[in-house]
Amino acid sequence: MSKVSVLVVDDASFIRDLVKNCLRNYFPGIRIEEAVNGRKAQSLLAREAFDLVLCDWEMPEMSGLELLTWCREQDKLKTMPFVMVTSRGDKENVVQAIQAGVSGYVSKPFTNEQLLTKVKQALNKVGKLDTLLNGTPTKMNSALGNNSLSALTGGKAAVVAPSAVAAAATIASPGLLNSPPIKAPAFSALSNGRGQGQLRLPSGTQQCVIKALSLKEALLVVKRTDTLPQVLDSAVLDLEQGDNAETARLNGYLHAIIAHEQKPDSEWLQLTFRFVDQDAQKLDYISRLIARGTAQKHFIPGA
After folding, report:
1. Which of these, 208, 143, 221, lies nearest to 181 by C-alpha position?
2. What is the rounded CA–CA span in Å between residue 241 and residue 239?
3. How far apart are CA 30 and CA 26, in angstroms?
4. Domains and their CATH numbers in the chain
5. In terms of Cα–Cα distance, which of 50, 268, 259 is closest to 165?
6. How far apart are CA 60 and CA 41, in angstroms?
7. Which of 105, 78, 81, 103 is nearest to 93 (CA)?
8. Who contacts 132 (Cβ-Cβ below 8 Å, separation ≥6)?
9. Is 45 helix (H, G, I), strand (E, B) or coil?
10. Nearest Cα to 11, choosing from 33, 45, 40?
11. CA 120 to CA 202: how far, in whole Å?
12. 118 Cα distance to chain centroid
């Protein structure tokens, strides 16, 4: 059994599951513990020894940056590899993490390949990588894909056909998904509007129109590209609202996908994006967006 131990820290259980499944698929026998925030992780690190920490930035009680700073102040944790896995990919955030002593940086949404590359680099620095690789079958998960869905399905991700997602939509529970399709306006016409955001997927970044918003999910309209998004893809929704250009990075996953028009070559897609963050500040931000949208009729609060 591998003696390598990893601590995964994130307030979103969906993200923790993605990371754990990805690591276990590639490194059988690896020991993985998890924590829902920096405070819980701090308690674990004080009691147990870990070879690597994979940590989110924005979390309740104690952020990833605060945990990293604390770790670097402890004699036994000064050199422990600490990789930040976060939607904060802006240059100033990266610099801030580097100054605090971070070992590596993975931006959400991430592919399996991106995560594994950082993990292998970190473990190689502490001399643990060879031990893991020597115990890994040569044909280890050749089907392991480069998206988040493959981490949950053991690398057997399949492209979701429009007909399949349309069928799934007919049995979905009531909510934003059941909102009728809308005629999606050109993005250029909304460049100065409030109903836009940016959706970051493993396959790339797309502009989106926000059709409806609730505390649990958002209904988005995006233009179809050559690469179809997949159900359960992890994603980050960037929203910038208000005169002070306040920006929120909302972590989540694609819960459902339907064609805007009932034909396989529909130019527009409707995506149901489920939030996974438990951070109180982000929930407050969404609440304020809903309240502002209700008054200004730019958003339609959902169930």
Report:
1. 221
2. 6
3. 9
4. 5-144 (3.40.50.2300), 162-296 (2.40.10.220)
5. 259
6. 12
7. 105
8. 2, 4, 27, 30, 123
9. helix
10. 40
11. 20
12. 16
What pTM does this model have? Answer: 0.71
Would you say 257 and 208 are in contact if contact means Cβ atoms under 8 Å apart? no
Per-residue pLDDT 10s for the chain (303 aa) are: 457 999 999 999 999 999 999 999 999 889 999 999 999 999 999 999 999 999 999 999 999 999 999 999 999 999 999 999 999 878 888 899 999 999 999 999 999 999 999 999 999 988 888 867 765 554 444 433 444 334 333 343 333 333 333 333 322 333 444 444 444 433 333 333 347 899 999 888 999 999 999 999 999 999 998 888 899 999 999 987 655 566 788 999 999 999 877 777 889 999 999 999 888 888 888 888 888 765 454 444 443
d(CA 42, CA 47): 9
Place of tokens 């967006």: 289
Burial of 245 (0-12, 13-18, 19+ CB in 10 A): exposed
